[in-house]
Amino acid sequence: MGGRDHSSHESNRGAEGAKREESKAEFSEDEEELIARMFSLVGERWSLIAGRIPGRTAEEIEKFWASKHSASNHQR
């Protein structure tokens, strides 16, 4: 019986971790504006931009920018 409870607990913990990652991946309006302003100033220097946004990595910002930029290109 204990094994079943443990596996159930593990799957719940995995779902919570994924949910936290999703919420972290979402950028606030302020973060989006700052990324756009910084990009216009320094270009694709993601680590420099990430240094201005606490808790964000260069990889997160680059992925965000690529997804936003490619989404707007597909709408045209």
Automatic annotation (TrEMBL):
CDD domains linked: SANT
InterPro entries in the record: Homeodomain-like_sf, Myb_dom, Myb_TF_plants, SANT/Myb
GO biological process: anatomical structure morphogenesis; cell differentiation; plant epidermis development; regulation of DNA-templated transcription; system development
Basic and acidic residues: compositionally biased ranges: 1-27
Cell compartment(s), UniProt: Nucleus
Signal peptide: none
Location of the HTH myb-type domain: 19-65
Lineage: Eukaryota, Viridiplantae, Streptophyta, Embryophyta, Tracheophyta
GO cellular component entries: nucleus
Naturally occurring in which organism (per UniProt): Eucalyptus grandis
Protein name per UniProt: Uncharacterized protein
